[in-house]
């Protein structure tokens, strides 16, 4: 019944809504329990007679005093018997023995001694990538769903019992709507029960808005009536098949999804052995660029960078901070007074020993400088500025010691090398001429060396070995002439005469050579040149010495100024003292400087780099360096501190130490340089690993995202159509099914005498074919469907889930 009025001035009117008339079930149960009285209930007839019913009630209470029926009285109120029906429905005695209430699997799991559902955990976990590792694309999803909602849909698809819980506004009713759409699309029957009407109405409105309301039957205990049920069934049966839509657009969705997922995965995937993602790396690089400002950070060439993890990078950055702290204290390592020292420990005794070594080295430098200057002055050479120049004095001095007497000799003349071959030929000729004279001095008279004896030689050759030679006038004349030059008797054997004749001829030839060379040789040798009477061994010594001197000068093995010294006809003995002093000073200089290097454990390559070792640097620099060290020996402690910090880092990260020692801004930005090197390496590695990052272009990516959104929205509509197509395919064929003919044409007539709940119970299977989703309160379930259909889905569990 409905109590209503049009305006506030009108009277209330009571109107029958068309719902079936029911008896007071609670009153019936109360009378039976308290008084043993059986109150009759109205019977479902085509025409309900109120007078007959009142007469039946009056007859039932006739035996009770003061009980009466007042036919014309009326009492208005809300009489809801749902709780009583629910109570009666849960009575185990009302259930068949073969299907006891507590033996139902769901009720046994909820209320049995071993409570809890024994379902296996869902196949997918929260870590699963749903786009690739699930069948989410097969769902009939009609509303947007996040990952947790999709996990719930997939768990239900697997047949799991579950509980979906969450605060208001987290999408529970949206998930339920998706679950109902999936059930419709899968051809399943669903009983949706909610305690509060608002929950039912929210889901029902969602389904109506999605076009899925035709598959839902809303049965609320105080609203449902047969006429509305008939109309709704008739309307659903008259629906046509939904037309397919947007299939082409939806077919593009996987391609769009794959492109976006590739980029999203690439941006969020850990890079290499790091746990950082690409977006984290880019963010950290941007923040680093802001922090460093205009400073240009170098890239460190770590050899083991490819095998680093985040822990290794953190360790390297920590080591860089340690180096920074030390640098901020001591300044640039290369600016340290004792830079290059590799000492790791400095004791007071070490400082004293170093002081003595520095003093000895400084004295040795002074002694060497003095001795070298003295020797250079003696040799008429420039004063040597360093040890190398001092050592270069030694070969010059030793060469000067070997000089033969050079009085009047043209020492500086270049002819000693330019005429070297002629000079050697002339000296050989002179020496050979002298040797021939010495060989035959006892045989020949001096005049013999000037004679022309060609005729005599010919006569000796032609007749000297003949027996008849005494008959030859030429032979007799030849012997006679030779006898005039011979000191003793002339040998009879012609073979003994010929070598002497040949020696005379050779001597004449050699004399001619010497005389021809004498034109220029006299200018070279000066007074020592006496022609054929010259002291040839002495001349050879002079020629060989000066030839070697000029040759070594031209090869820069001797200083050119040495020739000026030799022109002065020096006494070689005068060189001995200065030369010995330089040699001793050089030995002392080397020993004392090596003592300093050892005491400092000085790496001279690091300290002096291109300047070379301290030993060979200019004397002025050596003196200044040694003086500076002596002035502040305690400053060596700063180098020792740096060495210890650097040594701890150099074992694993030598590149870091090199950068700290060479980069001017290392004291403030070394750790940032390490961080940038690591992040840029990861960035490069990410580009190598993920083509999606290399191919990313913002405009095209945004276009793909927009197309994906459109296709995703189209897929939701497409899924609604698919679900309704599935529902339409399950609708009964009205021409082939007598039961549905009854529903369409005569259902109202045949069942109008039945209460709605009895109609539902008797025609439940047919109604489920038309309306697979039943939306009820728990009390409605008790009223209309006391036995859940075997193919229905029940949502109930004691096992919580997100």
Say what oligomer this is: single chain
- Sequence stretches where pLDDT stays below 50 over 5 or more residues: 735-745, 786-802
Q: How far is the N terminus from the C terminus? A: 44 Å
**What characteristic shape results from the CA principal axes?**
rod-shaped
Helix fraction by DSSP (H/I, runs of at least 4)? 55-70%
In short:
With about 800 residues, the protein is mostly helical.
Write the layout of secondary structure elements.
Elements: E1 2-4, E2 13-15, H1 25-34, H2 50-60, H3 82-89, H4 105-111, H5 130-133, H6 147-157, H7 172-185, E3 189-193, H8 197-209, E4 216-219, H9 226-237, H10 247-251, H11 253-268, H12 278-292, H13 310-330, H14 348-378, H15 387-401, H16 415-418, H17 420-440, H18 454-463, H19 473-485, H20 494-525, H21 536-554, H22 561-567, H23 576-600, H24 604-608, H25 619-631, H26 636-650, H27 654-662, H28 666-689, H29 691-694, H30 698-730, H31 738-751, H32 756-762, H33 764-770, E5 773-776, H34 778-784, E6 792-793
Parallel strand pairs: 3-5, 3-6, 4-5
Antiparallel strand pairs: 1-2
Helix pairs in contact: 3-34, 6-7, 7-8, 7-30, 9-31, 11-30, 12-28, 13-26, 13-28, 14-15, 14-23, 14-25, 15-23, 17-20, 17-21, 18-19, 26-27, 27-28
